[in-house]
Amino acid sequence: MVVWCRKAEKEATGSATQPCGRAGKGGRPHHRAWDQRDAQTQGSGQRGPDCPRMMTLRALGVLLLSLLLLWASGMENSRSQTEKPRNVCLGSINEGQYESFHLGSTAECFTKCTQSGNEPCNLENLQRYWLDFEYHLVKSHSNTVNMSFLKAAVQNVSTSISEDLFFSLTSSQVPGQVTEDEHAYPDRVRLPRSLFESLQSNRSEVLLAITILDVGPGNLFKGPQLSRKDGSHVLNNRLVGLSLGSIPVSRLAEPLEITFSHQHLPPNMALNCVFWDATKGDWSSTGCSTELRAKRTVCRCDHLTFFALLLKPILDQDTVKSLIRISQAGCGASMIFLAFTIVLYAALRFYRLRFKSEDAPKIHVALSVSLFLLNLTFFVNVGQGPEPRDAACRARGGIFHYFLLCTFTWMGLEAFHLYLLVIKVFNTYFGHYFLKLSLVGWGLPALIVFGTGSAGSYGRYAIRDQRNVTTLELCWFREKTADSALYTTVHGYFLVTFLFSAVVLGLVAWKIFTLPRATTGREQGPSWKGFLTVLGLSSLVGVTWWLAILTPLGLSTIYVFSLFNSLQGVFIFCWFATLYFPSRSAVTSSSGTGRADQVHTTSHE
């Protein structure tokens, strides 16, 4: 373009040095020839003589601008290749920095670091960042930190204090020293004075840092225990930290107490006091104990660190499936042996005429029948297949409730029969004795079930975890009436029979083990026979059901209860066969119950 313009200029002026443009003030002279040439140039569409300089300057400007843009783009690309992305959730950018800005940006990782994995996170670095925060508080002599997710305070405490210290742990307020009134401050921590007295030899004062940290619903401070999809989580996502800075505190003679307030828990959830074990990267309960109360839980621990209250389901779906398999296998075996017991009783009635008039085997068989039907309804209820209609489900719930109460009642009647035979002994004649027992054993549960059904208490009952996932659904009591009807007609009824049976069995065991020693002129038999006798009687009065009282202690006791309770029918058959199959002399020598049965039978005759 520049060459073309120069060529045009030479043709127009005849000389490369001829000045361009028209004459003006201080310019070139005006000639008519120039006007003609300019008119021809304008008429032909060609550029004038000023064009070369203008095009040259413009081209140089565009070229210079392009070079600048290319240089800036190259610098940006090289910078993006050499610099690492500034991701706070990797835990290294804000390491050791605890200004409000850094705390806030790091706290955003509580929600970013979730199980979806959209944001790259280094959980170990982030957890270490918050664990070191208390050391920073003590080292920097900070007073308070008041942010939406973090409340912290540092207090100077004398090691020669004369009483325990109490601090509030309300999530909406900065921790502060309070009085001992637990009603005014339901969330609090008690630090025993012995903790500070143990430090008197080294220092007169210490700095105490108290932190309340909301870790949110993400993956931070979850660990392997809470990574399972069973609804386990930290209660209210709240951690409580206690620290004396670089002073290690462990194995306290008197533990500290942290009280967490909460609402009533779901029936399938359990609370456990834990602390964060940084060496394992998980929660641990070593050195901590849990005391459950109505609307609060007290944690007692022998060291200082970050504490929390774990809420975990007692029965998750995998556990429920395992327990159902164990119960079905045990109930199936019990039903087989209970059927053997009924057939054996029928055979003995046919071959032994005196057996028809004895009441003890009739009571055993009545218990066997009620337990057999209870196991049968359990199979139908648990393996019900397609979801039944509401009316059918209410009927199933009522039938299951009825045979459960019949089983409890006949176990109580077994204990009552033992009381008459072994404890009272004399004046034990009752007209139509077994008929009266049958009216109680089958009639009383019917009245209770009729009243409960009239109140509309039966229906679908579901056990759910904290994520509202159903782990087990039965035709039982409706969920809205479970708290009243269930605890009254099942738990209360069982408690009455349990207390009565326990007292009677204790008295019978005492007589079995002490009576031979008090009898003179009689050789004392081996102690294992008395032990087996008590063990056999235990199956009749329902000792296997007593294990239900221990189920709140943990999952292992639930497995033990499910196993032994489902095998009650097997134990009853073994006792029945041992009692009535051997020779009469063997029975008499091995069981006081056999002798008592004979005395009782004679009284009826």
UniProtKB/TrEMBL annotation:
The keyword Nucleotidyltransferase does not apply. The keyword Signal applies. GO terms for molecular function: G protein-coupled receptor activity. Its main location: membrane. Residues 165-317 form the GAIN-B domain. It is found in: Cell membrane. Keywords: Cell membrane, Disulfide bond, G-protein coupled receptor, Glycoprotein, Membrane, Receptor, Signal, Transducer, Transmembrane, Transmembrane helix. Gene3D superfamilies: 2.60.220.50, Rhodopsin 7-helix transmembrane proteins. Residues 323-580 form the G-protein coupled receptors family 2 profile domain. It is a multi-pass membrane protein. It comes from the Eukaryota. GO terms for cellular component: plasma membrane. One of its GO terms (biological process) is adenylate cyclase-activating G protein-coupled receptor signaling pathway. PROSITE patterns: G_PROTEIN_RECEP_F2_4 (PS50261), GAIN_B (PS50221). PANTHER family: ADHESION G PROTEIN-COUPLED RECEPTOR G3, ADHESION G-PROTEIN COUPLED RECEPTOR. Belongs to the G-protein coupled receptor 2 family. Adhesion G-protein coupled receptor (ADGR) subfamily. Heterodimer of 2 chains generated by proteolytic processing; the large extracellular N-terminal fragment and the membrane-bound C-terminal fragment predominantly remain associated and non-covalently linked. Interacts with PRTN3; this interaction induces the activation of PAR2. Interacts with GNAO1 (when palmitoylated). This is Adhesion G protein-coupled receptor G3. It comes from Ursus maritimus.
